[in-house]
Amino acid sequence: MNINLLQRLLAVPTFSGREDAMVSFLIEHVEADPAKRGRVERDQFNNVYITKGKAEFYPCVAAHIDTVFPLGHVNVLRDNGTFIGMDDAGKRTGIGGDCKTGVHVCLELLEVFDNIKVALFASEEIGCVGAFNAASRFFDDVGYVIEFDCPSTGLMSYTSSGERLFENYGAFIRTAMRALQSNGVTRWQRHPYTDVMALRKRFKFSCLNIGSGYYNWHSSQEFVKLDDVRQAISTGMSLITDLGECSYPVNDLSGTPMVEVTGLIL
Fold first, then answer.
1. Which residues neighbour 169 within 8 Å (Cβ) at sequence distance 6 or greater?
2. SS3 category, 155
3. pTM for this structure?
4. CATH of the domain spanning 3-133+142-264, picked from 3.30.70.20, 3.30.70.260, 3.40.50.720, 3.40.630.10
């Protein structure tokens, strides 16, 4: 894992509707090595789209690039196995691990696979504005989407704002189960909104949303656990390897889930 990249990402100021600095950071990062990172574009909503390689159906990974914290300088410090934020007065402050850790996971996975797409959405925190307005053409050849916008580790969204993300006994979740279980993703929950909710409302493909290693989100005591970010990368690698470059549509939402689904996390 590129810890320096994660630390730099966490220091980029970004707020809902004011994501320009993050967009510029991401475009510069991809364009610095297109052979390893593909081609990048942005849209009028500040969504960032990356395409690498050529596939009939691409695996796609996703995260959002806005945070709830006002724009300003933050000192991102390593404290044993975590990153924390301090302002210039020496007080703890949030670092936007929700969802900059997810962005980092996506950038790491981008360099692992030859054929992959990355969707990084603006203004998730104010109603998934970017995802609801994302260019549909980008998703025409997407087979499935894995988002990294759950806190902690071992956690997965079964629903997002009541929207089911995959079929209970479909090929998608049956294929994904080995990678989920072997990487400790065993807690399925009903979660508030995130971008895959908007995507499922708009498109037919299956989605996942899993943990990416941030804690105490939306608070001054937020921190990022490095081992859990590494685990998210490992989980993403296993999932994409097993799911491959295939299409997994959602047609049947009947039946009961394969794993017990617990309560809502706020």
1. 255, 258
2. strand
3. 0.97
4. 3.40.630.10
